[in-house]
Design brief:
heterodimer, A: about 425 residues, alpha/beta, Peroxisomal Thiolase, Chain A, domain 1, 2 domains, eleven-stranded mixed beta sheet, two-stranded antiparallel sheet, globular, B: about 80 residues, mainly alpha, Non-ribosomal Peptide Synthetase Peptidyl Carrier Protein, Chain A, 3 helices
Chain lengths: ~425, ~80
């Protein structure tokens, strides 16, 4: 079948650093952590964790008050990111003659509108109220973000959410990529958003003993992927989006092409809910390379899943070693989560952005907190611990490996300008 | 609080509607009140005044109709 090339023509996010997209990437390259200490006055006990928040995000200002009022924060972050990506791609917000009936949205979120329902529980159980706002249903539903994006941008094709834990938005982007490549959709908006600071959600993650500890002083360095002294992952809220577009359509309208998405593969470990498996990840990486028509030697950078858990990091390195074989030792790898944290359903999207920008700007952002501190169990690849510009970057992978055993990888190619 | 003031406050808070436009003859739809927002407005109203609206209530079209409906129910509640 005649396959289309797929251009990345729009990139947008709500930056954990509070600034715009160039600022976001400049700070990643500079090795600057966005992780801070979250201490709130929650009842009955305050949350106190390292966290990546977006405190400067003003939904009323970005979305307008009536629209913001119809959304939970996960949808607000998602629509804000999608708007930023859409504006970046240069198309008008509402259709201006060209039909968008086949254009669509695939959106990743692990938790959806959990905060809306948590607010409901608080009202009912803490405040003793008998009823809830009727808006709770439409605020809380997992497909709220993609539905709002479709409405706001006039997209009449597929509109669906993907809930695959930490791989949610990588899979959403991969599924969108396939739709554009097959010719089913000319343009797709894809990405993810999540708001994991719900009280019960944080307590549940704490119980799982995979959250890194930290206080006001130590939180910025709390996330240490691949390091000998890593203590776990750092949760974060956020939203990130890409616009994927039929290559010829993008060229015809003179759009700026940030990069090309060329491959996607997804597998399931089918062995254990939370213990990652080398073979499942290896199959996902191999499938992605095959889908992209690339050999291991063509990959010049891997944005790792790298959450900084004791179990996860060595398994990912073992999978990379299995796929890249003798070349693994020269394979540049970094985990940008060390700086922007783990955005759960938005993780795959924010890391896809980091990967596309690495290729576009020809610079690899580092894994911070790792230099001189590598866990021998995570050795075997070329860990990038400070920004690197020494070699041309032709193609790159972005890895996402989820609880549930779902694995996904995306392959991107640099566009020569 | 008078019903019209509650409507005015709600529409300003939720929809950013300018208070001077929330006048009796104004159409609720023109102020941005769709079916969902109407449900939310009813909910807020029930909550504030501690009453329960009947399910087959006729949906008001204007701010004035809404205020009259609310005033009637509040009066009935008091008796």
């Amino acid at each position: 079948m005649d396959q289309r090339r797929v251009a990345v023509t729009g990139i947008g996010l709500v930056s954990p650093y509070g600034g715009d997209l160039p600022d976001f990437f400049a700070r990643l390259v500079a090795g600057e952590s966005a992780i801070r200490h979250l201490l709130n006055d929650d009842l009955p006990r305050p949350l106190s964790i390292p966290f990546v928040g977006c405190p400067g995000f003003d939904p009323d200002a970005v979305l307008g008050k009536p629209l913001a009022a119809m959304m939970d924060r996960f949808a607000q972050l998602g629509v804000a990111a999608a708007f930023a990506a859409w504006d970046d791609c240069g198309l008008p917000r509402m259709p201006d003659g060209e039909s968008r009936d086949g254009w669509g949205v695939t959106w990743g979120t692990a938790l959806g509108g959990t905060l809306a329902f948590e607010k409901g529980y608080r009202e009912l159980w803490q405040k003793g109220r008998e009823r809830l706002s009727p808006l709770t249903v439409v605020l809380g539903m997992n497909n709220a973000a993609n539905a709002h994006i479709s409405i706001q941008l006039g997209l009449g094709g597929v509109s669906m959410s993907h809930t695959v834990a930490c791989a949610s938005s990588a899979i959403a982007i991969g599924e969108a990529f396939r739709r554009v490549r097959s010719g089913e959709a000319t343009v797709m908006v894809s990405g993810g958003s999540d708001v994991p600071q719900a009280y019960a959600v944080v307590r549940a993650w704490e119980a799982l003993r995979v959250l890194a500890p930290g206080d006001a002083e130590t939180s910025p360095a709390a996330c240490r992927p691949f390091a000998a002294d890593r203590r776990g992952l750092v949760l974060g809220e956020g939203g990130a989006a890409l616009v994927l577009e039929d290559w010829d359509h993008a060229l015809a309208r003179g759009a700026r092409i940030h990069g090309e998405i060329i491959g996607y593969g997804t597998t399931c470990d089918h062995t254990h809910l939370v213990r990652p498996e080398v073979s499942g990840q290896t199959r996902a990486l191999a499938a992605t390379l095959a889908d992209a028509g690339l050999a291991p030697a063509d990959i010049d950078y891997v944005n790792a899943h790298g959450t900084a858990t004791a179990e996860g990091d060595p398994v990912e390195i073992a999978a990379l070693a299995a796929v890249f074989g003798g070349r693994a030792a020269q394979l540049p790898v970094s985990a940008s989560k060390s700086m922007h944290g783990h955005l759960l359903g938005a993780a795959g999207a924010i890391e896809a952005i980091a990967t596309v920008l690495a290729l576009r700007e020809q610079v690899i952002p580092p894994t911070i907190n790792l230099a001189g501190n590598l866990d021998p169990a995570c050795a075997g690849v070329d860990h990038v611990t400070s920004a690197r510009r020494d070699r041309p970057l032709r193609a790159a992978l972005s890895n996402s490996f989820a609880f549930g055993g779902s694995n996904a990888a995306l392959a991107f190619r640099a566009v020569v300008r | 609080m008078a019903s019209i003031d509650l409507i005015r406050e709600f529409l300003q808070d939720r929809l950013g509607a300018e208070p001077e436009k929330v006048v009796p003859h104004a159409l609720l739809a023109d102020l941005g009140v769709d079916s969902l927002m109407m449900l939310e407005l009813m909910f807020e109203f029930e909550d504030r005044f501690g009453i329960k609206l009947v399910r087959n209530l006729k949906t008001p079209r204007t701010v004035g109709e809404m205020a009259a409906l609310m005033d009637g129910l509040i009066a009935r509640q008091k008796t």
